[in-house]
Automatic annotation (TrEMBL), chain A:
Membrane-spanning parts: 46-68, 106-127, 139-160, 190-211, 232-250, 294-318
UniProt entry keywords in alphabetical sequence: Cell membrane, Membrane, Transmembrane, Transmembrane helix, Transport
Gene3D superfamilies registered for this protein in UniProt: MetI-like
Segments for region (Disordered): 1-35
Membrane-protein topology: Multi-pass membrane protein
Natural source organism: Brachybacterium saurashtrense
Xref: InterPro entries: ABC_transporter_permease, MetI-like, MetI-like_sf
UniProt biased composition (Low complexity): 1-12, 20-35
Protein name: Sugar ABC transporter permease
GO biological process per UniProt: transmembrane transport
Intracellular or extracellular location(s): Cell membrane
Lineage: Bacteria, Bacillati, Actinomycetota, Actinomycetes, Micrococcales
Record family assignment: Belongs to the binding-protein-dependent transport system permease family.
From TrEMBL, chain B:
Full protein name: Carbohydrate ABC transporter permease
Ranges for domain ABC transmembrane type-1: 99-291
GO cellular component, one term: plasma membrane
Sequence similarity: Belongs to the binding-protein-dependent transport system permease family.
Record-level GO BP terms: transmembrane transport
Native source organism of the sequence: Brachybacterium saurashtrense
PANTHER family: ABC TRANSPORTER PERMEASE PROTEIN MG189-RELATED, ABC TRANSPORTER PERMEASE PROTEIN MG189-RELATED-RELATED
Gene3D superfamilies tied to this protein: MetI-like (1.10.3720.10)
Predominant place of localization: membrane
Membrane disposition: Multi-pass membrane protein
Domain of life: Bacteria
Places the protein is found: Cell membrane
Membrane-spanning residues: 42-59, 103-124, 136-155, 167-189, 210-235, 273-291
Length: 330, 305
């Protein structure tokens, strides 16, 4: 059975399997029966997915439209919104804190996303090794993904404490001076990036699914042809993993644009020192729920939405060059 | 160890069962030399230590006294074993209230997610209707929508309904499906032989009946995966409770611990915070260890493409 996203399930049986059953029962005139079955299937199908359709309308279509509308207003959440045209967007373009937030978020994304893919792929390969205790490793590598961001942040606050944290002990061991990562605008970003790597388990599981879908016969053929492990990885594993890589890349970028919780907790909601952990989502949250500037925050949300969309399309467009759909792995 | 490797033949592919027996045997039947897995093992043990470190650090800090926590260099193994920190953590804040709120939200979200996403995925995977592939692309597209763009209108909506400061804004959306879970379950459902479904249809079974009697029991590993994902996401959610739950009586563990820490910022004891954090993740750790073999299989069998 094909597991391809693009696979057309209707090809599984011409006209649908139920249509086929009707045709067998009425060989003289299958077409009207098939049309009836199709109509009935359409009704049943739509009925089954109706929770999703209702959900999309209430939780996606309505709020996105409403958000776009609000972005052209001044709105504190109390009185009715007043129309201000594109003023919020003009303000955003000139807002130095928007620039800081965008800079911080890009810094995070550029380092955390590729590093995250590398860590997740390494874990996935480790999770896929043929050793007796592999289930134990899988459990261990996934376990930190269960630790919520807020608890992980508390751990890092203790771990990185400049007075008594273990981090400094390690640095001292190698002759380095005491550092206060969380007290430095760049350091705090690096700390949050490192923290995120411990949650690579989810992306690793998706890579693992991809690894297990690669037919073993390809590796056997390659080994017969004399290909070593590195050659096998470069010529088989990596190309066949590119669709999964694309999935993890897009979700990784999308997640990086929305980084919030760790920064909120590590900085106790301030984003300091020197706005070094003021990520875009933090600034959006502050405007919406701190300063009651819901109109301005909506404009920031719309800009984030457009940036995310543009990045996803760019990645998708680039992916046509490197993503390999030639071999049906599965 | 052996119990972890035991496989459930009902859901397993033969290849994996073979792995368990012949982990050191190549596909062509030759036995791998002992040193070929040794390097892999060394790397994996090193990675394991790295990934267990935060958990260990959390437990070790939770067991230290205030003085020992402030010592430099820090002790690797707690000298004092202050189990009292756990008692203090639970009594210093309304821990049980937070716990109950988290539990109500998480259990409701898990039940609703499993049911709604399964019915939706069945509609996409097992019923042939015109336009379903186009519709499925729309599902995938919503996967890439950044949620912040819906944040403010959703808050506005729940505020108008008078439901801010109740648990409903964090529970109700789960009844309407989510793109990632629909995707995961659909992949799994596509593996059920169509002939089996058609045979049931010929026998006159309704789609609803087929869903419950054939599709549901077959999909238990995938449903376990969805349940664990939903439980972790809901139990650990920070931003949702931060926005919707202002009163202490409705706060969850995630937001409650942060409130506790910021209110007592001057003299917060991190050993108590670590003890409380450990109690927070304990239910998830137990859940995961019990169900982990179904969980990982639920993802890897469905496959991603």
């Amino acid at each position: 059975m094909s597991s391809s996203l693009a696979a057309d399930p209707r090809t599984a049986g011409p006209g649908g399997a139920a249509g086929g059953a009707t045709a067998a029962a009425d060989p003289a005139g299958p077409r009207p029966g098939r049309a009836t079955v199709r109509r009935r299937n359409l009704r049943t199908g739509l009925l089954f997915i109706s929770p999703w359709i209702v959900g999309v309308l209430i939780f996606i279509v309505y709020p996105v439209a409403y958000s776009i509308g609000l972005s052209f207003t001044r709105y504190s959440g109390m009185e009715a919104p007043t129309w201000v045209g594109v003023q919020n967007y003009v303000t955003a373009a000139a807002d130095p804190l928007v620039r800081t937030a965008v800079g911080n978020t890009l810094f995070y994304a550029v380092i955390a996303v590729p590093l995250g893919l590398l860590v997740a792929l390494t874990l996935a390969i480790a999770m896929n090794q043929n050793v007796r205790e592999v289930a134990l490793y899988r459990t261990i590598f996934y376990a930190p993904s269960l630790i919520p961001a807020f608890a992980m942040s508390f751990i890092f606050i203790v771990f990185l404490n400049p007075q008594f944290g273990a981090f400094n002990q390690v640095i001292n061991l190698f002759g380095g001076p005491n550092v206060n990562l969380l007290g430095d605008p760049t350091g705090v970003k690096i700390a949050i990036i490192l923290m995120a790597q411990l949650g690579a388990g989810n992306a690793a599981l998706i890579f693992l699914a991809g690894l297990r879908n690669i037919p073993r016969t390809i590796y056997e053929a390659a080994r017969v042809d004399g290909a070593g492990p590195i050659r096998q990885f470069a010529a088989i594993t990596f190309p066949l993993l590119t669709p999964v890589l694309l999935f993890n890349l897009i979700t990784g970028v999308s997640g990086a644009l929305q980084v919030f919780t760790e920064a909120y907790i590590v900085t106790n909601g301030t984003g300091d020192p020197d706005a070094g952990a003021l990520f875009y989502m933090m600034y959006l949250y502050k405007n919406a729920f701190g300063f009651a500037e819901l109109g301005y925050a909506s404009a920031l949300a719309v800009l984030l939405f457009l940036a995310g969309l543009a990045l996803a399309l760019l990645i998708y467009w680039l992916s046509r060059r490197f993503v390999n759909y030639d071999v049906e792995a599965g | 160890m052996s119990s972890m490797m035991r496989t459930d033949t009902r859901y397993d592919v033969p290849r994996k069962a073979a792995d368990a027996e012949n982990y050191n045997r190549r596909a062509d039947g030759t036995v791998r030399p002992w040193y070929s897995t040794l390097t892999a093992r060394i790397v994996m043990i090193a990675l394991s230590i790295l990934f267990l470190l935060p958990l260990y650090w959390m437990i070790a800090s939770a067991l230290k006294s205030d003085q020992e926590l402030a010592e430099f260099p820090p002790t690797l193994i707690p000298r004092s074993w202050e189990f009292g920190n756990f008692v203090e953590a639970v009594t210093a804040m309304p821990f049980l209230t937070f716990f109950a709120n988290s539990a109500i939200i998480t259990v409701s979200v898990v039940v609703l997610s499993v049911l709604s996403n399964f019915v939706i995925a069945y509609g996409f995977a097992c019923i042939d209707w015109p336009g379903r592939n186009t519709m499925f692309y729309v599902v995938i597209a919503t996967l890439f929508l950044p949620f912040p763009v819906t944040l403010i209108p959703m808050f506005d909506m729940w505020a108008r309904l008078g439901l801010v400061n109740t648990l409903f804004p964090l529970i109700i959306p789960a009844a309407f499906g989510s793109a990632f879970y629909v995707f995961l379950l659909r992949q799994f459902l596509l593996q059920i032989p169509r002939a089996m479904l058609d045979a049931a249809r010929v026998d006159g079974a309704s789609e609803w009946r087929i869903l419950w009697t054939i599709a549901f029991p077959t999909s238990l590993p995938a449903l376990t995966t969805v349940a664990i994902f939903a439980a972790v996401a809901s139990w650990n959610d920070f931003m949702g409770p931060l926005i919707y739950l202002q009163d202490e009586s409705v706060q969850t563990l995630s937001i409650g611990l942060q409130t506790f820490r910021s209110v007592n910022a001057q003299d917060v004891s991190f050993n108590q915070l670590m003890a409380a954090s450990f109690l927070v993740i304990l239910p998830l750790l137990i859940l995961f260890f019990v169900f982990q073999r179904y969980f990982i299989r639920g993802i890897t069998i469905g496959g991603f493409k």
